[in-house]
Design a protein that fits this description.
- Helices cover 19% and strands 39% of the residues.
- The protein has helices at 2-26, 89-93; strands at 31-36, 43-51, 58-67, 77-83, 102-108, 115-123, 128-135, 145-151.
- It contains two helices and eight strands.
- The chain is of the alpha+beta class.
- A hairpin with a 6-residue loop joins strand 5 and strand 6 (115-123).
- Residues 14-27 have low confidence and may be disordered.
- A four-stranded antiparallel beta sheet has the order 1-2-3-4, with no helix packed on it. It has a four-stranded antiparallel beta sheet with strand order 5-6-7-8, with no helix packed on it.
- This is CreA.
């Protein structure tokens, strides 16, 4: 009987931890929109506004589906990034200019290690900042992803040839 009680206690602790993690994942300081997908579903479209930490003149809006009662959220997401302030050469001097760029945001989408990430990549030839959002878990044979670009044309950081 004692082993059975220990098993029940362990299970209740696990459920409590999962509940806390799900509750915390629903909290977001950057959330600017929340659209219900209907009366008979627990899924919502959440919209977050994220300012690039190294280039504060760029804001990205990311929409993704969150399922309130599921252990894992769907992998689909969309991203739109725009220039919302100055972009200077000093800001560009601090970014990773490699082909793989730099992860500027990540969000857990599952208790099973699935994440949504936003990666900034600089295209030096076209002088464009690219923002790629993607899921770290394969879904139906592919990794879900979306791309948005912010050209430097017209900013202080643009270098004319």
């Amino acid at each position: 009987m004692n082993k059975q009680n220990d098993g029940i206690r362990s299970w209740l602790k696990y459920l409590g931890a999962v509940s806390v993690m799900l509750g915390l994942s629903a909290c977001s300081d950057s959330e600017v929109g929340d659209v219900s997908l209907g009366l008979f579903t627990t899924k919502d479209i959440k919209i977050d506004a994220l300012q690039d930490p190294d280039i504060p003149g760029v804001t990205c809006h990311i929409s993704s589906i969150e399922a309130n009662l599921d252990l894992s959220d769907p992998s689909d997401s969309a991203i739109a990034c725009r220039q919302t302030g100055p972009i200077t050469p000093a800001m560009l001097a601090n970014i990773d200019t490699s082909d793989s760029g730099d992860i500027i945001f990540r969000k857990s989408k599952s208790v099973f290690f699935k994440n949504m990430k936003v990666r900034r990549i600089f295209d030096a030839n076209s002088q464009t900042l690219m923002y790629l959002t993607y899921s770290t878990k394969e879904t139906s044979g592919s990794y879900k992803h979306s791309l948005s670009t912010v050209p430097l044309w017209g900013t202080q950081a643009y270098v004319s040839n």
